[in-house]
Amino acid sequence: MLPKHIVYILFFCLVVCSKTWVATAQTPEDYYQRGIQEIRQGEYTRALQNFQIAVEHNPGFAKAHAAVGTIYLQLKDFTKSEISLKRALQITPNLMQAETNLALLYTKTSRIDQAIDLYRNLTRKYPKVVGVWLGLAAAYQQNKQFQESIEIYHQSLNLSPNIAEAMSNLASCYEAIDKIDQAIKYYKQAIHLKPKLPMANGNLGVIYLRQGELDKALPLLENAVRNDPSFTAARFSLGLLLIKKREYERATRTFRSVIAQQSDHIGAYYNLAQTLFRLKQIDAGKKAMETYRRLSRIAQEIDTRQRATLNEPANPQKHYKLGLTYQKYQKYDQAINAFQEALRLNPKLTDAHYRLGQLYLRARKLPESEKAFLAGIAIAPEQALLHAGLAAVYYTQGRLNDAFLEYNTALKYDATLAIAKAGIAAIHHRREEIDKAINAYLEVLTLDVNAHYALNGLARLYLEVKPNGNNHMTPQNIVDLAEKAVRLLPRPQYMHTLALAYLYAGEHQKAVNTINTAIKLEPKNVSFQQTLVKIKADEKTNLQNK
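Structure (tokenized):
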């Protein structure tokens, strides 16, 4: 568990150690001070821009590099954060902000030994800085070295006795080694200092729930969920308590909320099924139970793969297969970790490089994706999929000439590789070479009649050009292409194409239903929202013209 206040303390150090910015930014120092002001206002993106300008104007400005690294750490872009923090330390060794945040980065990226070594060194340099001790305690805690963590939390509290979060984390360490009385003591002290602290309320509530003291547990769990609606574990425990109190309707609502937050929560589905059966909602209960069984099978498959890595921790194939299983079930962060471990054990495992490249590309981490594909190509230069993956990175970056070259290289090594041919079609499309794009997409479909990406691409292309002298696609033909793509793979982007096809064909209700489904899957997608507005406006116009 990482105390949430540590990052706050490090940002606070950054702010209070700097002068107030009062003038229009002109020098690197001015841009730096403007960034400090924006951190105070919670404007991290704007702060990052100003720190980056400061670095551009003065590449030797160590504090600005450290600030860039700190912002990236806050934004969870750990690769960029590490580059900037280490650059700051190259310029100014022992720069406290850079060292402390680098230690925190090591903790967040599970490099615990490095984190502990760095924090240990920092406690010797800065024995009175409580944030350093808290960072060390958190690293020990994450590494399940609870006794060491307890000692360091006490040291931190000796320096600053009223840090409620530190008391809560100390209590959780005592709970982990089964010293429940001590855990209760420090959770209570944390709540006394900060009554709305979610972690302390939730964890103490769970202890009382296990002890059968429901009346004590209920207000604590309610308080935890009220003050942190995203605290899924506390909400689940609240649901269990409500079952014990026979409040089945409220328990049902609670478990549904848990599932809305974590769609693969096995325990929530099981207990939801039980509450629905109690409420005589048999069909809904059966549906929830079937989902529980499906998720249990997935969990069992993952557990089997995890056990294989524990039995043979030095076998890269075991970690690679675990990564494939995580990827199969869309647990992408865990998949990345597994593939990285496989490559640590065998840097020449090209399949792992390819998978990492795919996952980074999906996450729009393009430099990391490019690096992974290039690493694979260096090992196996004739592997077509690696060249196609690299081409996809270049295409996403807008480097169309490089992408075109790599797609053709992929086809040189495998002339039947449909995704490479589809990539070339997409480049022709982007260049507005419509006839070439159509022919290329049709070639893909001769290679693979179920190439959903080609069906979707072709439908989008025909929607742009509409029927003309060179093609005779009717609106229904375009709908057929888009529908098939969605049947093969119900991606929100494919649904967007289908909604546009329905609109073109005059089927407004189908268009509305389809785009609404896409919006449910990606509620923050602005293009989907704009298309919904367009469909409704078109429908209104048609009604007025009748």
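The mean pLDDT is 91. The two ends are 63 Å apart (CA to CA).
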